[in-house]
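agent> fetching stored inputs for the heme C docking request
agent> found them:
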Amino acid sequence: MNRTTRQALGAVLLAAAFSAHAQVDQVKVWAAACANCHGTNGHAQPGMEALAGKNADDMTKTLLDFKAGRKPATIMHQLAKGYTDDELRAIAAYFAAQKKP
Ligand code: HEC
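agent> prediction call returned; pasting tokens
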């Protein structure tokens, strides 16, 4: 690998690292909006649905069902409408990756 290639590759990797970082931070901002009810990082108080460590696919499906009105809810159907499907997927993946309390 010559010097220019190496530098170019370095720049690409750096950019990837930065954007991955920005992505995580954005997810944290979204997840913070859930903390009031579901607890910090999905560690809910007793009686409230804990999200940490749940299956990401199941959670995504539940959130998309809320959004589409397929799953009856008191509040989640309204909240879920505030996010795109991809954002809901990212939020579900974030909570799934948190350790169970
Ligand atoms: C104002 C309180 C509140 C906030 C904020 C909130 N939720 Fe909920 N969540 C609820 C309630 C209440 C339920 C039970 C369903 C219902 O009545 O809407 C629920 C249910 C859920 C469920 C289904 C749990 C299960 O297995 O049945 C998921 C998943 C969920 N919420 C994810 C989220 C995510 C992700 C966010 C942030 C984007 C969020 N919630 C923000 C109150 C809240």
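agent> quick read of the result: The CA atoms of residues 3 and 59 lie 46 Å apart.
agent> awaiting further instructions
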